[in-house]
Amino acid sequence: MGSGILIRAFAQAYRQALANASKTGVAQETLQNVAHRGSKIMTEQEARQILGVSEQSTWEEILQKYDNLFESNAKNGSFYLQSKVHRAKECLENVNQGKEQGSSGQNT
């Protein structure tokens, strides 16, 4: 009997939380975040955060940070962090190549 009351109270609280979230737009923001994470595409901002570099960092600085983080995670055995570091470098590599192609296309 007590568990039935607890389940009904939980269900009611959950419905109220959903109603409050839809009023404030939190539900829509959460869905957008889930959709973004589901796509598994790393943004440039995420990549820069992972590697600890700014938008003004040179490619050489990015590679140096990558090498340091990749090697330290290889030694300490964190494959997850090592893969995140690698994906961040790949993302910034694509951004860097795009900038180089854009600037060389403007000169011709």
TrEMBL record:
Keyword match Protein transport: yes
Transmembrane in keyword set: no
Membrane topology: Peripheral membrane protein
Compartments where located: Mitochondrion inner membrane
Transmembrane segments: none
InterPro entries cross-referenced by the UniProt entry: J_dom_sf, Tim16
Positions in coiled-coil regions: none
Similarity comment text for this entry: Belongs to the TIM16/PAM16 family.
Protein name: Mitochondrial import inner membrane translocase subunit PAM16 like 2 isoform X3
Annotated source species: Coffea arabica (Arabian coffee)
